[in-house]
């Protein structure tokens, strides 16, 4: 018997690898870390998720028993201790904390509350006199017995975990309300959750449960964006571990507003979110590093809100804010530095803002994008934000990964001893890459993918050292601007030929004058909107358009185009295509010449498509994709199951295979065209499998395996979807537990592409336009914005966990981005 067999027989262990020094690495089975949401029933928990919850149950059961009888009934502070000293938090501070939370709940005027994780009943005692009915749940049996035995009118307390909303005990208790609750409350409980997947399962059931207009309140959340700041504050010169190491070892779940918005976006109902800052008078970790969130379910339409920026409100912005609050009109003030976290001029604490706004309807908020900033809104309804406005990549800190590694190491040692085998000194455990891990590991993953991309760029940048630095890429933004300027001049000149200054025409008249083929009309409409946005075309009160300026392409534009193409890594053939297409726009619009004929002048489709594969953006992103796949292959059972959609000419495929190296992989190359699958088979041979799949139809119905992929790759293909959200939901069905979606897409509209390549995307007669059913609908845009794409992912139940390049890098100028998302 090998040393592997007893380990692989354990249901938590999916893989065992020997290290070069004779040690062993065991890999967790993704199913043991999964949470499978089942509407109408409690979610199905993976074994390690269930064990994590049992661990916290034991901790709190012991904590509550130890403190029983030593505290006031309405202020039982069992377990509440300061992180830095280990001493109990001051009772008056905790009383204020409980009062503020009750105030937050009652502000929304609920009458029937379900509290998940009611603990020792601090909020129960404050809320029940104001309610018709209250149901509380907790996992500590003896506090449930004690609280339920108080005999408070309208109060029922049952033993249940947070995920058991749809369990028999909670359902029976809720039936006594007579109606569904109008508030579900989770206060200071989410930090005990193992993962964002578990949080999402709980919140989805809570959102489904409340009545329209109700709320789900997630209170006392530890902000993941302040985790390292917290440990930096606690750091002592003699401490062995730095703040990063201590942050990585934190055993609680922390998340940020962006992560919560992604969870809310995947709900079955319309949800908006408000994020409230702590306004406690004492300066403690509760005040500095925590926030409260309110999810408004099927809310009434929010009022239009005027927005003011703090540092533009004069020498005394606090007085201006107080005046606005007294007026009572809907307003939001943003950009207020938090005095507890930054010494910035005019900084204010949450308590200071609350005092200044006393007697008004104003509320103090947390800036959802920057935890160092506060906001204020009048009235509270003005605080609500749609999840789309927060769409992006969150940075949660999930304790499940560290917990799983510790338990897997213990289990592996035990199983080896039971089998009479030697336990190597070097025995470690790992969890699958992606979700479920600590904030430091996620940052390390992003840095690794970024470095892989920069290493790949080394061969493109003369004199560059590996990896390429931003300094060596500083020319990229100017080259992109040159592209835009050349395209705008070409479009202005074209439109100026049929629309003269002082002689406005309707859009339909312009289309008619240009002789536009019906299938290309959408392109001209988009051109006109872009020209209007750029101030080159003006719309009169009757909706007619006239040119403001008409500057034809100059002779230097050809040379400028060549130099910009070279700087961005495009070959000479692409510069020729762009130049020719711009010169022949009238014929392209009339369908007298096809864009394909210009792009593929020799009829060699594959070679022509490959022209665009090795520019700066694609080189960087493809190498980053290869790194993501390599990490997935190293941390999952073999073979790694990959499905690539819209693989086309195989540029991303080749980069993925380069990244995977000799890893064992089951790689399914798919495209809508048999031409590409046959060509790929000639190129890649039997290392890959090949199939026809169309992202505009149900992928499982086309023959793809449900839950059969560890990674789905969609490189520059989602913009071809008629409804990206629907396509992403079909993609989600392909993912196994722990599965990842890897997407590359442009997140802005490049005017040169709009003026040339866009002709390739005009629909055939009778086909709907691209994006007609998603967030692009009605805009005429082909590409998503930087908020829209992660919003589509989140709404489809795919949480973005990585995005590259960073916004501060010159690599962001081409606006080609990599998104990695995990299935929720």
From TrEMBL:
Any GO BP: methylation
InterPro entries, alphabetically? Methyltransf_12, SAM-dependent_MTases_sf
GO MF entries = methyltransferase activity
In terms of SUPFAM superfamilies, this protein maps to: S-adenosyl-L-methionine-dependent methyltransferases
- The Methyltransferase type domain covers 643-740
May I ask which residue range the UniProt record assigns to the signal sequence?
Answer: none
Is Nucleotide-binding given among the entry's keywords?
Answer: no
Q: Which UniProt keywords apply?
A: Methyltransferase, Transferase, Ubiquinone
User: PANTHER family this protein is in?
Assistant: PUTATIVE (AFU_ORTHOLOGUE AFUA_2G14390)-RELATED, TRANS-ACONITATE 2-METHYLTRANSFERASE-RELATED
Q: Please report the name of this protein according to its UniProt entry.
A: Ubiquinone/menaquinone biosynthesis C-methylase UbiE
Organism of origin:
Nonomuraea polychroma
């Amino acid at each position: 018997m090998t040393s592997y067999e007893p380990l692989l027989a354990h249901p938590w262990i999916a893989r065992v690898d020997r290290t070069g020094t004779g040690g062993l690495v065991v890999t967790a089975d993704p199913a043991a870390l999964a949470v499978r949401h089942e509407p109408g029933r409690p979610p199905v928990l993976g074994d390690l998720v269930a064990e994590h919850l049992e661990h916290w149950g034991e901790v709190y059961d012991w904590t509550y028993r130890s403190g029983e009888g030593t505290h006031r009934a309405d202020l039982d502070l069992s377990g509440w201790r300061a992180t830095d000293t280990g001493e109990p938090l001051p009772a008056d501070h905790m009383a204020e904390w409980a009062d503020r939370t009750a105030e937050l709940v009652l502000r929304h005027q609920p009458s029937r509350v379900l509290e998940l994780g009611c603990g020792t009943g601090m909020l129960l005692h404050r809320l029940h006199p104001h309610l018709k009915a209250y149901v509380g749940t907790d996992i500590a049996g003896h506090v449930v017995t004690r609280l339920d035995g108080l005999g408070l009118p309208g109060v029922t307390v049952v033993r249940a975990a947070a995920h058991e909303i749809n369990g028999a005990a909670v359902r029976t208790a809720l039936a006594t309300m007579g109606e569904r609750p109008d508030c579900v409350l989770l206060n200071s409980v989410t930090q005990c959750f193992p993962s964002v997947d578990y949080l999402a399962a709980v919140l989805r059931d809570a959102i489904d449960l409340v009545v329209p207009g109700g709320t789900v309140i997630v209170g006392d959340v530890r902000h993941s964006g302040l985790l390292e700041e917290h440990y930096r504050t606690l750091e002592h010169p003699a401490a062995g571990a730095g703040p990063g190491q201590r942050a990585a070892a934190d055993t609680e779940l922390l998340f940020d507003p962006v992560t919560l918005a992604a969870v809310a976006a995947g709900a079955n109902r319309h949800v908006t979110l408000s994020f409230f800052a702590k306004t406690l008078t004492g300066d403690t970790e509760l005040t500095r590093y925590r926030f409260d969130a309110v999810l408004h379910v099927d809310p009434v339409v929010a009022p239009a809100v005027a927005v003011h920026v703090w540092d533009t409100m004069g020498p005394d912005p606090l007085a201006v804010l107080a005046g606005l609050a007294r007026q009572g009109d809907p307003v939001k003030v943003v950009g207020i530095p938090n005095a507890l976290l930054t010494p910035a001029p005019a900084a204010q604490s949450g308590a200071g803002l609350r005092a200044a706004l006393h007697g008004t309807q104003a509320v103090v908020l947390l800036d959802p994008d920057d935890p160092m900033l506060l906001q204020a809104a009048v009235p509270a309804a003005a605080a609500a934000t749609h999840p789309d406005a927060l769409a992006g990549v969150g940075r949660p800190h999930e304790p499940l990964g560290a917990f799983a590694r510790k338990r897997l190491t213990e289990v592996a040692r035990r199983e080896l001893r039971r089998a009479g085998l030697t336990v190597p000194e070097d025995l470690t455990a790992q969890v699958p890459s992606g979700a479920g891990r600590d904030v430091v590991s996620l940052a390390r993953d992003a840095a690794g993918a970024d470095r892989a991309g920069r290493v790949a760029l080394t061969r493109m940048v003369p004199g560059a050292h590996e990896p390429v630095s931003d300094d060596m890429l500083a020319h990229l933004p100017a080259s992109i601007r040159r592209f835009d300027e050349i395209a705008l001049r070409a479009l202005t000149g074209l439109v100026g030929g049929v629309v003269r200054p002082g002689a406005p025409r309707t859009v339909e008249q312009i289309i008619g004058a240009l002789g536009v083929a019906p299938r290309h009309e959408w392109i001209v409409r988009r051109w006109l909107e872009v020209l209007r946005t750029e101030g080159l075309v003006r719309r009169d009160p009757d909706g007619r358009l006239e040119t403001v300026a008409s500057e034809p392409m100059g002779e230097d534009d050809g040379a400028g185009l060549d130099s910009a193409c070279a700087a961005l890594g495009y070959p000479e053939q692409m510069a020729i295509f762009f130049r020719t297409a711009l010169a022949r726009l009238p014929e392209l619009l009339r369908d007298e010449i096809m864009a394909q004929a210009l792009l593929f002048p020799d009829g060699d489709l594959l070679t022509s498509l490959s022209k665009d594969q090795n520019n700066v953006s694609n080189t960087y992103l493809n190498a980053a994709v290869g790194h993501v796949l390599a990490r997935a292959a190293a941390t999952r059972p073999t073979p790694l199951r990959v499905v690539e959609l819209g693989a086309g000419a195989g540029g991303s495929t080749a980069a993925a295979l380069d990244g995977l190296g000799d890893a064992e992989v089951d790689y399914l190359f798919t495209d809508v065209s048999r031409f590409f699958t046959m060509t790929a088979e000639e190129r890649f041979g039997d290392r890959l499998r090949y199939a026809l799949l169309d992202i505009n139809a149900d992928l499982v119905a086309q023959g793809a395996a449900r839950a059969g992929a560890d990674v789905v790759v969609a490189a520059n293909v989602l913009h071809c979807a008629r409804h990206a959200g629907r396509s992403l939901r079909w993609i989600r069905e392909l993912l196994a537990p722990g599965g990842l979606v890897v997407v590359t897409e442009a997140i802005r509209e490049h005017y040169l592409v709009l003026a040339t390549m866009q002709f390739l995307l005009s629909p055939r007669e009778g086909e709907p336009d691209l994006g007609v059913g998603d967030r692009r609908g009605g805009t005429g845009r082909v590409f998503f914005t930087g908020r829209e794409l992660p919003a589509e992912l989140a709404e489809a139940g795919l949480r973005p966990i990585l995005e590259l390049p960073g916004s501060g890098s010159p690599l962001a100028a081409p606006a080609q981005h990599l998104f990695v998302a995990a299935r929720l």
